[in-house]
Amino acid sequence: MNDVARPGSAVPAGLSPFGVGQGEVMRGLATLEARTRRSVWNITPTLTFDPEDVAYSLGARSAARGVQLSMVVPPRTLRLHPLLTSFMPQVLLGPALSRTIVVDGRIAVIAGPDTVDGATTAWLASHGEFLESALRLWHATVAESRPALPAGTEPPLDRRQLEVARGVCLGRTDTAIARQLGISQRTVARDVVAILEVTAARSRGEAILNMLGRGQHSRT
Are the CB atoms for 82 and 217 separated by under 8 Å? Predict the structure, then answer.
C-alpha cells in the first residue's frame, strides 16, 4: 500500500492526495478529526514520543466526543515509546506493517512513498479498491494482535503525570512545570519519580532519552 501512487502516474479511482510533508498531513488530520463521528482505527509501524506532536491533542479531542480510538503497533514500540500505554491504554500489539488510518469505517488515510526530497506523503481513499484493502488490512491485523495492557490494568501514568513528562522532555524545570500546571513543586517531584520508574531510568536525562526512544534499551 506504500506504492499507492507516484508523481506522474495515474491516480486510481477513489484515491486523492491528502498531504505532502508532515505539517500538511497533520493539518489534514486535524480537519478530518473535526468531522470524525464514530471511530478511528490506526495501524502504526513506527511510533516514538514527540512532546510537541499535535496528534495527542487530536486524539484527546476525539476521545472527549466519544469517538472510539484503536491502534495497533509492533511489540518493539513499547521500548521506543514507554509512555504509549499511558496515553492509550487500549493499544494493541501486532503485525503493524503499513501506516493506515481508517475513519468511521468509510474513509482511509494511507501512507504513500516519500518524495525525492524525503518528505512524507499521504493519500485519501474514499471508495474503491484502496479503501476495501485498508478495511481488510485493519481487520486482519487486529485478528493477529493482543492488548498491550492486561484487562483491568491501570495505565502506568495518569494525565497529569503525562503532562509533567512532556514538560521534562521539553527541558522545563520543576518550578516551570508546577507553574504551568498549577500544582506544587512537591507534586511535580513525585511525578518525576514515577516517570523515572516507568521509563526504567536512573536520572532525569536518561528518562528523557528513554521517553524519546533514544535510550540504550530502545536499541535492543
Answer: no
- Order of strands across the sheet with 100-103? 15-20, 121-125, 107-112, 100-103, 39-43, 68-73, 92-93, 146-147
Are 73 and 47 in contact by the 8 Å Cβ rule? The answer is: yes
Dig out the grid coordinates for 81 from the structure.
Answer: 515509546
Rounded Cα distance, 11 and 125, in Å: 11
> Which cell goes with 24?
500538511
Using one digit for the tens of pLDDT, what is the confidence trace for 123-179? 999 999 999 999 999 999 999 999 999 999 999 999 999 999 999 999 999 999 999
- pTM beyond 0.85: yes
Residue 43 is given by DSSP the state E
Q: Quick one: average pLDDT of 58-66?
A: 90
Domains observed in the chain: 15-147 (3.30.870.10), 159-219 (1.10.10.10)
